[in-house]
Design goal:
inorganic pyrophosphatase (n-terminal core), Diaminopimelate Epimerase, Chain A, domain 1, six-stranded parallel β-sheet, six-stranded mixed β-sheet, globular, binds guanosine-5'-monophosphate, binds manganese (II) ion
Length: 331
């Protein structure tokens, strides 16, 4: 902590980075640190690799976030000029794509605040706590003496989203002491819940219905569910970033389903011939999905929540899934 404060005190151009497809914990941890370090004397920017869902637009500070995919040049200049990086909610520069390559070209100090397993050795000051509910919990522990309502609101958002509104990774009693102090700092918890979970478009809710009704396949022997959505199907419901957030958790509501996989097709970008199939894995209890995600789908993650990808068709991804699930999952 002392070292973190020294690094921050010395810095004049701070860039805060968080992971691709930012979720509430990524947004919350990055923005809480932005509020914490910014002052009149220094330049501080949050850069995310790609767009974040519109249901985080209300977060204090969200409007100033730069999106690398859209504002690449401006971001490159800030990254090159940075004298300190603060990296939140990712454990490997690969998880931030081309932003990671640019960051590593700048040899200035880097602080890592993260709760994913086995961070690669790229940061100078590491706050890595895989046992924590969220990166926001670690941020809280680091800056709890400087809370204000904005910081507390950002932290609460990450705690809430990374624990599924306190339904998993949230049995540690201390977490509720933290929540109490966030509420004392002015957090309006019910408003945050509504802003994140009750502002969906009609299309989003109908897409969820379609996915569950028409596209969910169950493999009963392995307590496994698979949902796939092609780019055409997503277009039909005017898919926006974040519209299928949480979809992968829904099959776990079924009594005998303990594993859930969701595949989403992205159209090929210019210069890449094949579509990208983005894959989310979830499981319950002592049933790891991260090894499957990493060995077969070029990804990884937590035991019960992982991600991966393949470049190819949905059919190819499903084939790979069907060829391998018996090896990695428990009956
Ligand atoms: P999601 O399904 O929400 O995209 O990802 C779930 C979790 O899996 C994330 O919190 C992250 O920890 C992990 N994850 C997702 N994609 C990847 C990936 O490509 N590589 C690694 N190592 N972890 C991933
Ligand atoms: Mn997280």
């Amino acid at each position: 902590m002392k070292k973190m404060k020294e690094l921050i005190d010395k810095a004049n151009n701070i860039v805060i980075l968080t992971h691709m497809a930012p979720d509430g914990d990524a947004m919350g941890s990055a923005l809480a640190m932005w509020h914490y370090v910014r002052n009149a004397e220094r330049s501080v920017h949050v850069i995310v690799p790609n767009a974040f869902p519109a249901f985080f637009n209300w977060m204090p500070g969200a409007a100033q976030i730069l999106i690398y995919e859209k504002q690449g040049r401006e971001c490159d200049a800030l990254i090159a000029a940075a004298d300190l990086f603060i990296c939140t909610d990712f454990n490997d520069p690969k998880r931030i794509g081309p932003v990671g390559t640019k960051m590593l070209e700048n040899k200035c100090p880097k602080i890592l605040i993260d709760h994913h397993l086995n961070p690669t050795d790229f940061a100078d000051e590491i706050h890595s706590h895989p046992e924590a509910s969220s990166s926001c919990e670690i941020v809280y522990r680091l800056i709890q003496n400087s809370l204000n309502t904005d910081i507390a609101t950002c932290i609460y958002t990450g705690l809430m989203t990374d624990t599924g509104n306190f339904s998993f990774n949230s049995t540690n009693a201390e977490l509720y002491d933290i929540i109490a102090s966030l509420i004392r700092a002015g957090v309006k918890k019910d408003e945050i819940y509504n802003a994140v979970f009750n502002q969906y478009s009609t299309d989003r809710v109908r897409l969820t219905g379609y996915a569950l009704y028409r596209k969910m396949r169950i493999y009963p022997e392995y307590h496994l569910s698979l949902i796939t959505l092609s780019a055409d199907e997503l277009d039909r419901y005017h898919y926006q970033v974040g519209d299928t957030e949480g979809l992968v958790n829904m099959p776990l509501q079924i009594a005998d389903v303990y594993y859930s996989v969701y595949m989403r097709e992205e159209r090929p970008k210019p210069g890449t011939p094949k579509p990208r199939i983005r894959i989310s894995f979830r499981s319950q209890g002592d049933r790891p999905v991260n090894i499957w995600a990493s060995e077969v789908f070029h990804g990884g993650g937590h035991m019960n929540a992982s991600g991966g990808e393949i470049f190819g068709t949905i059919e190819q991804a499903v084939k790979l899934f069907e060829q391998t699930y018996t090896k990695y999952l428990k009956k």
